[in-house]
Every structure is written in C-alpha cells, then in structure tokens.
Amino acid sequence: MDRGDNLRAAIPFYLLALLMASPAVAWPPSKGADAVADATSDAATETSAANISIDRSRTTNSTWSDAEVAAAIEGMDIEAAKNCAAASGLEIKQSAVLVDLNHDGIDEIEVGTSSETQDGAGFGICYGAVGRETAILVSDQTGGWHQHFSGFEAGGFQSFDTDHTDFPLISPAEQGLCVTLYQWDGESSQWFLKDACDTATGRPRALTQDDERGSLVKSYSTGAHEVKPRKLSDDEVEAQLAKSREPLFIEPEAATSFTVDPWLLDLGPTHDHNGSEVTVYDLGGLIFYNKPKYKGIAPGTVLFQGRGWWNSDPRAYVEGVAFAFKKGCKAAGYRVEGGYDEYGDLVLKGAAPVWDKSGCQITGYSEASPNAELRFSVFADE
C-alpha cells in the first residue's frame, strides 16, 4: 500500500459518513385543494425547492418545517456556484441537514450545494475534489437567517462538545488526518478558526491574520415574523439520537491496519494500553501505538479507527474498527464500541477474532477473547 492509500484509509469514518448520501425527505409534500388556488405561487415554490433534499436524522431538539427550510435556502448567497453551473451547463442541486451545531437548542440548517447534469455526468466540476460546498444557516427566530460560510468546499460538518464550560467546535469534512476546527463565539454569534490545516500537505499550520475573520456572510429575512421551531418530544429526541448512530461504512473484516506518519505521534494525549504507550487522536478517530510494548509492532501502527469524538465529553460514544495482532499474521479488524468509564478510562468492547493455533486462519469471534475489551488509561501525570 502506498502513502496515498494510507492517507485515504486513515480518513475518519465520521468524515466518510458526512460525505455519504443521507435518506431524504421527499419534496414537495402532497398538495391539498387550497394549495392549487395560486398556481403561479406554487410553481415558483416548486422551482426553488425541487432539488432540495432534507435530512432529519441528526435533529435532536427544535426543528423546522420543509417550507421553512426551503424559504431559508432561497435567500442564500450562492451566486458564484450558480454562475459556475450555468457556464458549465450544469444543474444546481442542494441538500439540507437539520442539526444543532452551536448548541443553542435550535436546529441550524447545514446546506450542501453541488452541480450535476441530468444524466449524472459532470459532478463536482465547480467544487474541487470534495464535489460540493457547504454553508450553515442560523435562525434569529424572528423570520431572519444568518448565512455562515460561502464557497466553502466541505462535505459537511461534525459538531464536538467541549467540556461543557466552553462553546462548541465544528470540523468540516475536507481533510483526512489533519482536522480543521472552528469554534462558536457566543458574543459575536460567529464561528472563528481555532486550528487550521495546510491543504497542500494535510498537516497543521499556524494561524494568520486572514484567519481571524468570522464566518458570517449574509443576514436576511424570509418575510415571516416570530418564527418558532417546533419542539420535539423526549421520545422523538431519543429516536433521532438513535438514528444518528449510522452503521459503519466498511466491513471490519475487510479493514486494514496501517502506520501513520511520525509527526502524528504527538497529536493527542498518550494513554497506557496493556503496557504500551498509545496516542488517542480523538478528533481524528484514531488510536495508534506510540511506544509499543511488543517488538513486532512498529510505532505509529493503528489499533483503532472510527468516527471522531471529543475526549473531554464524558458522554462521548466511540465506535469503529479495532485491530488484533498475531506474530506473522495480518492484523485482523473487528467492530468495537464504548466510551469513558467513571475513572476516565476509554473502554471499547466487541467480539474479537480468534486464530487457529497453528496459523493465521480466523476461526471465529469471541467476547471471551483478551482483545474483546480494550482499555486506554491516561497516565497519572497527565
């Protein structure tokens, strides 16, 4: 496997999840008799919303109707995208994800814009390698919206809760191992860059004066007044949370362990794992050996990869593929999940592979295997 394959394999699953198509709510909804009265108005509404798909799988609190989502998106500034699509003979397509990214209890609208011809050819011509640009719409609850980010090439955003004493972070899905972070500022109501990546090298870079600009692009009104999103019931919240835990987008048995670049070894806090020192790169969804106990394992070898999480959140749900190792055999992947226990240790559990005694053939998976429970303990001096 070459270095490029290594980097592609290292992309955290939560970033892949954001780039995958999500189940959409059909639009427009069926019309009643009253809706036919003004054909001209209906036609205009259908024209603006025909290419909008709405994903509600990440809704956890107060949310918006299909009509409110379409009206909010209609007022966005996407002139550059429209001009590029028109010049290329492409059709604008938009998608909306309803998710509370700034943790104010009300869903933001994460809007993805891409271009695609009628036969599906030409996807991504106007949007670089990512294939789409993403903006975030934040409601002022009086019929107005604030658009954050414009022309931002990203597959979407993942929200990270901090230690519950600070404003939340979001990370765009445009990098692999190097994670760009924006933090919400409650006073100016904008996101500001906190940690940056060099897109050419995929490595962290120092912040510059240009990075100090906030995320706000445009504020506008949809003409409504005192717009209040509908509050979800506790049962609805629980159901939406359950839906947000999508299945892994790779079969654990087909996953392959790899070795990260040496500069990544100091990217996260170090933990003890069965006498080995490992690095837990939470935002990148990786755990890899820093100082392995066993000579057959090289520093940087990945023993877990999954969706990113925030290690200061005691409620963090961690899921992904762990790797078991046997001398002379290929590392074997298996599904694990878990979180932090009362001692602050990260504990992941899952039925682990069992090899035959004389070779590398996997005979089954067992919860009684020593690898079925993985514990990562922070060293006492950290």
Key terms:
382 residues, 2 domains, six-stranded mixed sheet, elongated, disordered N terminus
Question: Secondary-structure element sequence?
Answer: HHHEHHEEEEEEEEEEHEEEEEEEEEE
Share of residues in helices: 10-25%
Pairing-aware structural class of the strands and helices? alpha+beta
Question: Radius of gyration from the CA trace?
Answer: 23 Å
The coarse overall form would be: elongated
For the biggest sheet, the summary is: 8 strands, antiparallel, barrel
Strand residues, percent: 25-35%
Task: Please describe what this structure looks like.
With 382 residues, the protein is an alpha+beta fold. It contains six helices and 21 strands. The strands form four sheets. Strands 12-13-14-15-16-17-18-21 form an eight-stranded antiparallel barrel. A hairpin with a 4-residue loop joins β4 and β5.
List the SSEs and their pairings.
Blueprint: H1 3-9, H2 13-19, H3 39-49, E1 52-55, H4 66-74, H5 79-88, E2 91-99, E3 108-116, E4 133-139, E5 144-148, E6 157-160, E7 169-172, E8 181-185, E9 190-198, E10 203-205, E11 216-221, H6 234-244, E12 270-273, E13 276-281, E14 286-291, E15 302-306, E16 318-324, E17 332-340, E18 346-349, E19 352-355, E20 362-366, E21 373-378
Parallel strand pairs: 1-2
Antiparallel strand pairs: 2-3, 3-4, 4-5, 5-11, 6-7, 7-8, 8-9, 9-10, 12-13, 12-21, 13-14, 14-15, 15-16, 16-17, 17-18, 18-21, 19-20
Please give a quick description of this structure:
This protein is 14% helix and 32% strand. It is built from 6 helices and 21 strands. A hairpin with a 4-residue loop joins strand 8 and strand 9.
